[in-house]
Every structure is written in structure tokens, then in C-alpha cells.
Here is the input.
Amino acid sequence: MALATRTPGRSGPARTAPPAPPRGPRTAVGRFWRSTIGKKTVMAVSGLAMLLYLVAHMVGNLKVFFGPEEMNGYAHWLRTIGDPVLHHEWFLWIMRPLLLLAVVAHGVAAAQLSRRDLAARPVKYAHRKPRASYATHTMRWGGVILALFLVWHILDLTTGTVNPRGEAGHPYENIVASFSTWYGNTIYIVAMVAVGLHVRHGLWGAAQTLGAGSRTRDRALKVTADVVALVLTLGFLSVPVGVMTGLVE
Amino acid sequence: MTSPYLDYTTGDPIADTKAPAGPVAERWNRRRFEAKLVNPANRRKHTVIVVGTGLAGGAAGATLAEQGYHVVQFCYQDSPRRAHSIAAQGGINAAKNYRGDGDSVQRLFYDTVKGGDFRARESNVHRLAEVSVEIIDQCVAQGVPFAREYGGLLDTRSFGGVQVSRTFYARGQTGQQLLLGAYQALSRQIAAGNVEMHARTEMLDLIVADGRARGIVARDLVTGRIDTYFADAVVLASGGYGNVFYLSTNAKNSNATAIWRAHRRGAHFANPCFTQIHPTCIPRSGDHQSKLTLMSESLRNDGRIWVPVRAGDTRAPADIPEDERDYYLERIYPSFGNLVPRDIASRAAKNVCDEGRGVGPGGQGVYLDFADAIARLGRDAVAAKYGNLFEMYARITAEDPYATPMRIYPAIHYTMGGLWVDYDLQTTVPGLFAIGEANFSDHGANRLGASALMQGLADGYFILPATLADFLARHPHDEIPPDHPAVTDAVSEVTDRLYRLLSNNGDRTPDSFHRELGEILWDKCGMARTDAGLREALERIPALREEFWRRVRVPGSGSDLNQSLEKANRVADHLELAELMCLDALHRTESCGGHFREESRTDGGEAERRDEEFSYAAAWEFTGTGTAPVLHREQLLFEYVHPTQRSYT
Amino acid sequence: MNLTLRIWRQPGPDSEGAMTTYEVSGISPDMSFLEMLDTLNEDLIERGDEPVAFDHDCREGICGACGMVINGDAHGPERTTTCQLHMRHFTDGETIDVEPWRAAAFPVVKDLVVDRSAFDRIIGAGGYVTVATGSAPEAHATPVAKPAADTAFEHAECIGCGACVAACPNGSAMLFTSAKVVHLASLPQGAPERETRVLDMVGTMDDEGFGGCTNTGMCTTVCPKGIPMSSITTMNREFLRATRKGGGSR
Here is the structure.
């Protein structure tokens, strides 16, 4: 047995030093980005921006059901938005970096937060409860799937690099070509389900992060998130389904 | 054979010399004016040790630090926020007279002296009543969410046999909210570096050198390290000693070690037999019971207490018709009914159970019935008032109190006795102060409901900071060398004792001794005490103590977290304190307040107080373990509230 | 009842730990979970083994000292504290897993005992109203509307047990922190420090190594005091408001 006895001093152990000044940045922006709530706010705002884009994208996709002329015409119109103030495709080139910024900000914040979150529980429970981490996992891994899909999607239908047809200015034909392959469909369907799950929890989470939730509103918010996620997923999935069923050819 | 402990001697009378003379209402003002002050620039140079972080300790630590003193504070819990004040439910009294129902400082003073059965010091009680109003202001400013009315003003209720509505509350969690207020104020000072907080650190001895308290010996419960801490003054705010009884409403780890060690070092222990037994606790469910849970006495405002008329009636309560129920409190005490003071309600419950009319397992319970209240006010109104208590009851007993009456039984709740202190809250050891439940001062022989929170906060926020300054200003600190024999003695006594516990290698657990001690005390020094019973207890306790030191087993080592060692060390002190409690109960052959001597009753069978002989506080001086202590009497003078036999019939 | 217990035993902060199996018998359904562990510990001491260390104190569900993860649930299958969980919620012959709170910010001290002092530091960072003793105005000088007082109380009920952190997949302390932020932000007394409080408390919470909130709501399902999810949302709003107002902190 060891009973440690300390040599007595005037006040026992050394007096506590005054607390160290708060570490980290002192500016409002620095503090904001450094805090978990700040990063989540960045994720919420960038996520909502991407969601708006996705809704517009999904609505545009439905043009495919009205034939190649309408679809290709729509694609052409996108390049003329803002005319005559904006030059041809300027609108798209303004949107692209903004979207890229949203994707990067969303991804960086997500990666940093995930790293924190994983570090916050270094030892796992021996008795696992799957439901606890369901939402977190769908967000985290769903996000990774979406990031990978994004690369594929751009190579497929923007640059046409991996598209079986890949002819610029003919999106309708490219879409039909892509969805005529098994892998094209599989990748797309998996990704769209991931989009649905991601939006479902993400929209609700964004509302919470931005402080929009309340006890009375939470139910409505959850329903809204579910509906938006479902409509978005169904809308996107209707295109490959249309191709597969021959509705679109 | 009679215990040598019984041969106590009577020493010089003791008197409070600090309360100024003059009208009672002016004494506190005069004392504050006459008290010397410490120059703000010099306060940082004064170190004050505070043991405990409950209402008294938390409030004192925060206030002293805020005033500029260097505070070194201790609690055995992992956080100062967990002190047992947190469990107080009912409320806190204050003479605000917001209801215009005739309340005043004078009336609160009167009620407290009378409720204490004329065994408290008038000067102290009057000061408590005066300060009560400031407490509410302070706590509201801290953001304590007291119950409010729709107009936005504070709500109050009447509580525990008092006829004015002076009790402020925060649902059934008033203690929690007040404690968190004090804890937050303390946290601010910890963060600011003004309080050096030692959580999970337990005081194991007091260092007294050259007639003055110099510091403490404490054990870091995580590392086992034993340290000495020095200070200009030591404040004990370590709470009461109800856990001597094993089963009580105290927290499991509440203990008497700090005050008992101080007593051993020269602080007189006053009125140890004055313990309060609370009438509305959930009865025990079996031998495994580890503690008892109190339900707020506010339940008695709407619940009706009854037992079957016939002994041995085992029918379900719903099957017992109205005319076969005995609403015994309403019957015996028609003007107060179910709201008689705690001691009377407790004893009445014991009497009906002794008659064989108790209900529930073992016949140790009485019904507390809300059927009438639900019929009168509606279930929702009852739920709004008592919902959390009903939930708690249902969770513990698996019975629904909305549908079937609650079962309640008395349990040890509070100890009015404690270290003797003067008006300045200083013990008989210069430089050692005791505040809150740790001292004996304000509640006499019985505490009124909602007064404990009031006293703890009054001592901590307002009284001690004023009187301690006077001590510090008048007694310049002279450092003692760290190798002073008083220091090395205290350290080696502590280490020797722990070593002895660890190396004993017996065959009984510390808890088994604690349980056995508790049974002796509950039977012999509980709700009703007799000469023969107390003498028997005084035989059995030393024997149990001897057996403890022979047979206790404490596994593990002293150099890490060892909860058995903590427990055994506390039980060892309980085994000494219990003996003093029984002696005090034996010597006080009157009945008063929470102390009911079977031999001292009126013709009607009620408690009979005997003022000619016992109008004093009994301050006991320690002479050695198991050897007879010395009794010092503090005669109590009643200049303003004239003693009358309490009558609640 | 007879039960098999698999309990995390870890001798000290830096030691390895492991789930260890014990059999207990003669357990009454009326026992609390802690009384069941008391029974085990009494047996262990009599056998000369070290009893299982666990934090506990008031045993009436208010001090917040006790807490263990029982079969994967913080505080076990009922929404209450471990001390108020009774054995009637288990079945005879059952195997029960008992683990400490798991979080980087709550290092294990011994067995089921963890160090939750990070919570104290979060409160110390701003979870108070600065009011020197004796300087308070008359209590009735500032009326507080009942709904605000009720909201404050509901959040002030937090007992600081740490179950929210234990249950959160990210070990986040958002619910604990928000309970205090919302309590004080609901009251006029808390208004002068409203911005600095939330910024400083959130800053300290992050510095202590808790994870972020992913809105899983697990914290609220285990909270023995029923602190609602809206508490976190309100704190987010308070944080954004304070940042917008210039983000000054102490």
C-alpha cells in the first residue's frame, strides 16, 4: 500500500494559475469558422444553396420527357441566361465557381467536423446500438458517395469524357446513352437514393443549425424535409426509369 | 456493566459573546458596523479554506472570492454542483410579505423560534429572518427560475405548518435551482482564478496549532494523495450527519468526517441528538434499501393522511370504506390537521404503525391520499402542482399515486445539531467557522420546512462574509512552519488510520457495520427515545466500534480511487459520533422538538418540554475516543418570544 | 432474479480495461440498479476483490452523479437516471452490459467512473449571471412573464449527468451547453451577458474536445430531465445572433 504524503506547503499544491487566455482566433469570423456551430452553419447555407440548384436541375431534367428538341433547346437556353447583359455562357461560368465553392465549403466543413466527431469518441461501446448512428452514417458516407458521384456525373454529362456518346450540345442523346448502360443506371440510382437520404436529414439539420426549428415547428420541418427529399429523388430517378422503360429514347 | 462514556462531567458554561446587546432587531446591524473590515487591497493575501460546496459553502466561496479573498475550496463529489443541497425540494422561506397576509421579519423570527421548540438562540434567528429577504433578491438576480404567476411576479405557497404564504419555490426542485445559482456564481470565480477548487478531495482532518485553526489535511480521492492545505481561516460547510443512521434522505456519501474531525480537534459539538425525522418519505422496500427518498412535505397541503381504523386490516385502500379510515392527524390536531410540524406528523405515524395499523410491506407506512384533492381541483391541477413528485413515486414503487394512495413513512432527514458556533458562526476553535447544516445554530430542536435553504444561503452569502472579515482583520495571520508538530501529527494520524483500514484484512464490509449502526440508532435514538434504550445503545455502539476495527475489510490500495476506503473511513467516524448522539439524548431527559423522550410527556401523551432544566444548548467537548466528554451549557435567553408549550391541537 | 453482468473494469486512467463477467443472484425487482451493484460489491469485498467503482450520491435522480451505459443505453432502458432505474425493468436470467460514459472529453478514472470536469469548465466560461452578492435589486423589480419563467425552468432542470454526451454518436455536449444558454437567455436577468455567454460557452465546449451536433436527437431520448431538442436549435440561433452582433467575447 502506498499512501502518498505531500510535503506541506503554504497552500498545498501550487495555486492555480489564472486561466490561460482563450486559445484560437480572436476575430469574429475566425471564431465563427473555428466553432462547430459556425462550421455547421457553413454546411447548412452551402447545403441549402446546393439544394436549390438541385431542385432547378431536377425540374430541368424533366424536359427529357418532351423529346430531344425541347431538352436540347433548354440546354442551349441555359447558356443564354442574362443575355444581352451577359455574354454567352457567362451565367453558367458565374454559377459554376459558386457551386464549386459551396461543394468545397460543404465538404471541408464536413470533413473537419467528422474528424472532430470521430475523435470525440475514441473508445467505442462494446454494446452497439445501430440506431444511434444511423443518421450520422447516412450523412457521412452518403456525402462521400455524392462527392464521388459528382466527379462521375461531370465526366459523364458535362465533359462527356466517360459518356458512351459524349457529343457536346446534344445532352438528350448523351443522357439516353448513359442510361442505356447498366453501370450508368446503377451509379445514378445509388447516388440519387443517397441524395434523398442526405437531403432528408440534411434539410432538417440545416433548419436546426440555422435556428429555424422550435418545438411547434419541428414536425412540420421534418415533413417538409421528407417531402422535398422524396420529390427530388423521384424526379431525378424518373429519367433513367424513362430511358429503361423506353419512354425516353 | 455501564459504559465509562456515561460519566460525563459538566464544564464551564459557554456563552455567545459576539451578539451585541440591545434590541434584537438592531443586533445584526450593530455587529456589522462594529466588525472590522479588511482593506480590499489586502484581501488577496488572505487564504480561506471552504469545505463543501452546497448552498452554504457554494454561496460562501463565491462571495468571499468575489470580495477578493483567495478561496481554496473542497468537495468530495466530482463537481461542486452535486452537493446534496441539490435534492431539497420544497422551497425557501423569506419574510417578503408579497401576499400581504401578515408576514414580517418579526413573524418569521417568531415562527422559527417557536418551531424550534425554544432551543435556538434568539439573536441568530432574528438575523436569519432579516437576511431572508435579501436571499430572494440575490437568487432572482442570478437567474434562479422561481415559480411565477401570470402577472410575472413571484409565486409563494404556505409550507409545513405555517399560516402565511412565505415559501418561494421552483416546482419541486427549489434546492437544485438555488444550488445551481450558487454553483454558477462559484464557477465564475473558479474560472477567474479566485477560487482554487479541489473536487473529489475529502477533508480528513483539521490542523490546529497554537490554539488556532490553520488548515486541513485532505485526500485526493482519485490519486489517494494526502495533502495539507493552510489558510488564515477554515470554514466547514460540510452538511449534516444524518447518514449516521445509514438509511436517511441524505446522499449516500454525505458524512460527518469534517465536523467530527474538527470536534476531535477542539470544536464543541452541540445538541447532537437533535435530528429531524421527515414524515413524508417513501417506505423501504426491503433489506437491500440503500437510502430513503423524501417527497416534499408540500404534499401534505393537499394529501390526506390515514390508516385503517382496525389493526391488521390488509384490504386494498380502495376497498376500505370511508368510515373505516382513520384520518388521525385531522382527528387529533383539528386546527392544523395534516399540516402539523414534521416531528408531530412523524411520531403520529410511528404511533399508528406501532398499533399495528401501518400499511404496506412490514406495516411500516401510512397512506397519503390525493383522491379528495383530485376530486376538488381536478387531476390536471394536482399534476401541475405535484406532477414530478408523483412521477418519482411511481418510478420507485411502481404504483400510480393518481389511482391509489401513496404510502409514506418517516425517515431521518436533517440534523439540527452540529458544531457549536457563536453569533459570528465561529466554533470554539478560533479561526474555524461552521455554516449551514454543519452548525447547530438556528433551528433549535426542530427545523421548520423550507428553512434549511434559507439558513444555508443566509450563512453563505451574507453572514459569514461579514463575520469572517472581522476575524481576519483582528487576527493577523502568522504562518506556522510546515513541519510544525500539529501538522505532522495530523498527517500521520490520517495516514495511520487509512493504513490500518487497508491492512486490517477482516471479513466484514464497511457497509455491513454502517447498516448495523443505523439500526441501533433508528431503534434507540430515532423517533422516540427511552432511558433504557439509550443505555443499551451506549453499550452496543462501542462494542460495534471495537468489532469494526477488528473485522472490517477494505480491499484495494490507498493510492487510487478506492470507494470502500472512503466509506470505511466515514463509518469509523459515524461509530464515534453515534455514541455522542446517544449520550446527548440520554442526558436530555425532556422531550423537545425532534427529540422525544418517552418519559417526558404531558398527561395527554404529548411531548413535554422542561424549560427550567433544559433551556440550554448542550455543547460537548471531546476528551478521547470512547471516553466521557465534557458538557458545556449555553443557557438560552428568551427576551422576545416567550416559551410556551407547543400546542397544535 | 439471477443476472449475468458484463461490466467494464479499468483499474486506472492509463490502464487497459476490459468487460468482465459477474453473476449475481437474489436480486429483487424492487432494487434500484445501483442497489443491485451494491449487492455485487458487497460480495466482491467479502471475497477480497475490489468492488466496482461507480459514481453515485443522492440516489434520487437529482445530483447527476450516477450514470452508466446499460445495454447500450445511457442510464438504461428507462428515461431516468441510473439510480432511479429499477430491476423490474429487467428479466430473470438476462445478461446486462454495463459500460462507462464514452467520450474523449470524459476520460475514464476507474471502472465506471469518468471525469466530467469539462462540464464545470463550460459553465465557468459563461453559464452564470454576473451579480455580486448584496448588489441585487428587489426581486419584484423585474417581472418575468410566466412562459419565459417556465422555459427557463425547463432548461435549468439539467442535472449535468452527461448522458447526452454518452448517447450522442459524436460525443457532443450541445444539449448540456444549450440547456444553460437557453435557461439564462430566457430571463431578463440573463440579457446583459446574452452574447458573450453563448460565444464563450460554445468556444469552451469545442475546446474541451466534444464532437459537433448532427441532429440525431439521441441526446434528448436519454435525457433524464427531458431537455428538448429545441434547446439546441435555440442555442444555434443565439450563437448566430451573437456572431452577427459583432461576436465580442470576454
